[in-house]
Amino acid sequence: PTLSERDRAVIWHPFTQMQTAPLPISILRGEGAVLYDETGNEYIDAISSWWVNLHGHAHPYIAERVAQQLRTLEHVIFAGFTHKPAVELAERLLPILPGNQAKIFYSDNGSTAVEVALKMAFQYWHNIGQPRTRVIALEDAYHGDTFGAMAVGGRSAFTAPFVPFLFDVDYIPAPVPGREDEALAKLEALLDETVAAFIFEPLVQGAGGMVMYQPGVLDKLMQLARNAGALLIADEVMTGFGRTGRLFASHYLTEQPDLMCLSKGLTGGTMALGVTTCTNAIYEAFLSDDKFKTLFHGHSFTANPLACTAALASLDLTLSEETQANIQRIADRHERFSQVLQGYSTVKAIRQHGTILAFDLDAGGQTSYFNNIRDVVYNFLLDRGVLMRPLGNVLYMLPPYCITDEQLTYVYEQVEALLKTL
Ligand code: PMP
């Protein structure tokens, strides 16, 4: 049997259990923006896998650093102990983060980075003796699939079985062009002294369909929430580390978050790591001789030294002149390709922030996940050696920064070839 057949016998994958789902493609290795499968096919990874591989696959610099760390210290309990990669990473992250983020809390992935931020927010109010219990989030948000993260995500058919177990959240529309005033009015109406936090994906709502909005209106929403005392949680799990053109999407803002969530590109897509950051004001509410004021949250693999080392290596690459130039190059090319896309009648709502380019396919009202158009698009591009995984009828690109001009041209050409068939 092939690897794919052996997989089907023993593995339960996320999101792919449709009876009709084809066997998973077995990837043997990756290099730069390209993945190589068991049968000799190549795929340009135009979405950085699950939006994580900033520097492409199997980057030799990250590999070497992690290998060295593996031979030195692979893991150690992070209660009562610390180690160099964790300290160095925190020291390097804090000065480049927006606002006055003062402390780094390590966890394992994006969902737990969000989970931790929510726990910090709720417990902050508890610890200072003014309990606040409500959260406001954006419609169609995605913050992960643990229970807290699901609770603050937009409700969908996927979360339906869990709704009875999720805490109540109030939603406002994402402030996309044309809905700014509605979002502002709704937030204003919802805010009072019971709101613990306002959580949002700054500028781009990823899994909700690469929904994009402008910094000015987010600043206004943040001001309103702050005036009501609510803590501001910026989920930069997807937008962090250059995706929107600047290092963090929050760098486009005047207002700054109290808590930030990072993951995905944090390690350049090599190791699972999550980070929640907070201001001193929040941290200090947990400093007490009352042991029940401590944050009850710690994973076995928190601050894993290999993952922290991978993040340090990825950060070196991200901050390099070469990568910064690549981010600009991809953004410029996306902008030019947007003009081309405007020539297709099936392409609607073209939107771009930096290296993220998205548009809606107007395919006769078929807008749900797992619909025909999604499969047609996915398979058409895969057959031509391009990995893009549409979100319903939303097609998007989010390539690794190392993608070459030739590879990017090839991806654009295949998207145009697809559009010509629709
Ligand atoms: N927040 C955002 C904005 C995300 O895009 C995601 C993942 N798509 C998550 C949180 C959850 O991250 P993870 O899948 O690593 O748990």
TrEMBL record:
Q: What is its EC number?
A: 2.6.1.62
Task: Name the CDD domains for this protein.
Answer: OAT_like
Pathways involved: Cofactor biosynthesis; biotin biosynthesis; 7,8-diaminononanoate from 8-amino-7-oxononanoate (SAM route): step 1/1
- Which superkingdom is the protein from? Bacteria
Site for Participates in the substrate recognition with KAPA and in a stacking interaction with the adenine ring of SAM, residues: 15
Similarity remark: Belongs to the class-III pyridoxal-phosphate-dependent aminotransferase family. BioA subfamily.
**What is the protein name for this chain?**
Adenosylmethionine-8-amino-7-oxononanoate aminotransferase
What organism does this protein naturally occur in?
Answer: Nibrella saemangeumensis
